[in-house]
Amino acid sequence: MKNFTLSIVLLFVGMVAVNAQPKGMGKNDPDAKKLLDAVSAKFKTFKSVQSSFSLKIENSAGKTLGTKSGTVYMKGTKYRVSVTGQEIFCDGSNVSTYDKAANELTITKIDPTANSITPQKIFTNFYDKDFLYKLNDEVKSGGKLLQPIELTPIDKSKPFFKVLIFVDKKTQIISSTKVYEKAGNIYTYSVAKMNTSAPVNDSQFLFDAKKYPGVEVVDLR
Fold first, then answer.
1. Number of folded domains in the chain?
2. CA angle 140, 48, 218 (to 5 degrees)
3. Is CB count within 10 Å lower at the N or C end of the chain?
4. Within 10 A of 57 (CB to CB), how many other CB atoms are there?
5. Does the model's pTM come out above 0.85?
């Protein structure tokens, strides 16, 4: 479970490596496109976001292999993800990942030419060029009416074969995302609570070494 959060991040990185849609592929559902665009446009209007979330991995038999919960802060291109044992800070230029067990911080520089994923992209337009998508039948969950959108990767070499996005029809915000691996595991990212008007100070996105006595810094920039 030490690298649980990292595995999720890497999974989404694999989801959004940019590829042009090949000729001869099926067509996208225009209604799904309309809803996805509306969700993306609305999220981009938020100046800052504070959200609590849960991450869960299940096997093909429905057995839970691991769970974690945490908090994410987002503001512009900056973000901070906090879960048990790990924190990720991004100030817009660098990403600093802190491992509590090792008391170690790894710093890397953001490559502007890379198509890396960020928490912001999970809520916006990561779907543009890499998936075929369609609307599924509406479902009710926790008193909410959700509109599922099924995404199929165009690149069949990906380790997953399907992604389900559940959009809250009332708020037009993504409620949860399920990623179905070919190996049988299911990764679920669920939003427990989201505050789109919370004041978020820029200091949230900077690692303060004074708060982590004895931390070892590995600077890979």
1. 1
2. 105
3. C
4. 20
5. no
What are 137-146's contacts with CB under 8 Å, separation 24+?
138/169, 139/166, 141/166, 141/175, 144/168, 144/169, 144/170, 144/175, 145/169, 145/170, 146/175
In whole angstroms, what is the distance from residue 55 CA to residue 108 CA? 24
> What six digits make up the tokens of 67?
């769970």
- Give, for 145, the enclosing helix (H) or strand (E): strand 144-153
Range of the domain at 148: 4-219
pLDDT of the chain, 221 residues: tens digit per residue: 344 444 444 344 333 333 334 444 567 889 988 888 888 888 888 889 898 988 888 998 999 998 888 888 989 889 898 888 889 999 989 999 999 999 999 999 987 655 455 565 555 556 666 788 899 999 998 889 999 999 888 888 878 898 898 999 998 888 888 889 898 999 888 888 889 888 889 999 999 999 999 999 999 99
Query: What does the alpha-carbon distance between residue 158 and residue 139 come to, in Å, rounded to a whole number?
Result: 28
CATH number at residue 182: 2.50.20.10
Q: Map residue 126 onto helix, strand or coil.
A: coil
Quote the tokens at residue 214.
């004895």
